Amino acid sequence: MVIHPQPLMDAGSFARSAKSQLEEAVGLAEAIHLDVAHAQIFQLKRHTPKTHIGSGQVDQCAQIISEQHINLVIVNTQLSPTQQRNLEKAWSCKVIDRTALILEIFGERAQTAEGRLQVELAALNYQKSRLVRSWTHLERQRGGAGFMGGPGEKQIETDRRLIAERIIAIKKQLAKVVRTRELHRKTRRDAPYPVVALVGYTNAGKSTLFNRLGGADVLAADMLFATLDPTIRAITLPQGQQIMLSDTVGFISDLPHELIAAFRATLEEVLEADVLVHVRDVSNLDTEAQKADVESVLKELCGTQWEDKRRIEAWNKIDCVEDPERLPKPAGDYVILSALTGDGVSSLLHRIETLLQAAMFVEREYRIAHGDGKALAWLHAHGNVRSRTDTDDAAIIAVSISPANAARYEKLFLFRDA
Questions:
Q1: pLDDT of res. 192
Q2: Which residue range(s) make up the domain with 267?
Q3: Is residue 274 situated within a structural domain?
């Protein structure tokens, strides 16, 4: 059973409809193969500290749970430990909130050792807040160990200590992963290949687009969080430039803070990207709200670098848009496409190429004496010659070239006359 408690006033410029939020919660449940027997929206007149929803709504749910023999209730919000416990007592079944549900999905989907560590860290930080004294089975005392006297420690204290120790151990392991990832980043920075990262809301079509561009076989399914572990492929742009394309984990509204913290090492791949391609599902009625959620997390990650990031919006799933008049109003740099059919993908590649040219190259003019074929050949090999103007004694070459190669040319030939 899935319930969505909807406040009467939903804050935010891009407030979602209660129906779409309930549908997303059902999709999250189905993503881990749960059979949803009942789904319902509850309008909240006021916040109830004990159970989050009102007492009448608690009784209504209890009746449905009893009649349909439901053994799990998902409440699509963040519950306090006390609220979760009170609802479990009232309904005599397991109750989890949105955070626990997303953690469950991440735990099932993580494939790499790093991904599993990150999920476990997030889950332990979440569980740590759930160890409260009113859980009576945690109140039993254990005898002291070894030669130590005293009454021993209570089960709750033991669990807290074990969780704290495991968190420290995982953080040490992740620190090693971070160092290894930084070495990989340094290797990529040293290589002459710019990085383009696909980012976006979960199920926006990032993996389908990644497979289309990179000829990869990353899992692309119509489900939330089909991709958790980042994947990188080398692809070649239309004019021959090679880039590294990165597929990243999808974002979602109300992404648990525990997950943002745990996955920071993975998400920081975004910081190293030369271009961000924000893949949007424009067939979704909440596409503007989804965009706001994604940009909120990215701004948190990138900080002051956010405004300097070169970004393209890939308006995906255009083949699913029945009413073109409903498309968002154009703002910023965007390309309309369908990753599934391939329509518009070439336009995206050309746009990426244009942005990288602006990001990675500078315009220079060099004066090369007639007959100096070596200098001319070097420019053709290491830059993109835009034009050539011949004078009586020299050729004026306009070239688009990387700053590093410009410095190398000037050191080798010393014929710059810009």
A1: 60
A2: 192-358
A3: yes
